[in-house]
From TrEMBL:
The keyword Signal applies. Keywords: Receptor, Signal. It holds the Pfam family TctC. SUPFAM superfamilies: Periplasmic binding protein-like II. This is Tripartite-type tricarboxylate transporter receptor subunit TctC. InterPro entries: BUG, Bug_dom1. The keyword DNA damage does not apply. Belongs to the UPF0065 (bug) family.
Amino acid sequence: MLHRLILATVLSAASLSAFAQNYPARPIQLIIPFAAGGPTDVVARRLAEAMGQNLGVTVVAENKTGAGGTIAADTVARAAPDGYTALIHHTGMSTAPALYKKLRFNPLTDFEYVGQVVDVPMTLVGRKDLPPNNYKELYAYLQANRGKVNLANAGMGAVSQLCGVLFLSRINMMDVTTIPYSGTGPAMTDLQGGQVDLLCDQTTQTTQLIQSGRVKAYGATTKQRLAVLPDLPTLAEQGLDNFEMVVWHGIYLPKGTPKPVVDRLNAALLAGLADPKFKDAMAKLGAIIATPEKASTEGLRTHLKAEVEKWGPVMKAAGVNPE
């Protein structure tokens, strides 16, 4: 019996080694939880191209939207653990347990972790003809027009929703009407068209619109000013205390994916993050590329756990009830 067990273990190890040596042998699917053209989609498609060059196969970016990114995450959690189906997700991976009562996956136990990708600051923007010209004027305007101003977001679980909830709770104006959309694209389209008043979203989506004057910027959600928008004051320096929002992204694989495969994808991630074209594209959009420590398997695992523990109490304090 012991002989058979040892033989089975040796054969299994040999099979795994052969699989890892031949990996990848076909295109890899990178699932994106949000709509095409949105902030996460922009990062994912640039990264897929850079990683594909290192891997020697095509990394196919595919959008699978719905339920704040949980449909995509559940799909990957249930996929074959062979390294050919991966997930790129943002901060919403850590807030899902606080937003959904019947979550079909556990972010902390149902995945293998490849590494973090980029941190993306956010900006609070408004339609270009909104009367206030800075945050202090905006605050006074909101006070004088309680119940008459609306704030768009990209739907439940989207970081624009999270940012909006935090912003309104910090200024104690939860009576501002929130308008959920099916993605960042349509929300931003209506903001530019003047159909909605405000939106809090990632610089990957807002930078060029701010620079071209198509939306009015009220502040960055970071502690320090953004290199890509040096003339835009932070909300903090304009008087909004205890408010910071930076969106982080990570890559995940189904639980049970062999470690050599996880390591190979991690190596491709690190190569992709160092790719000059990718670095240039992210710099233009205001995204901050993860350090090698953050882009490690353990870096993502540790960060995700800390974020899950952080967001639960925050969402509860903001009065957000799980669906």
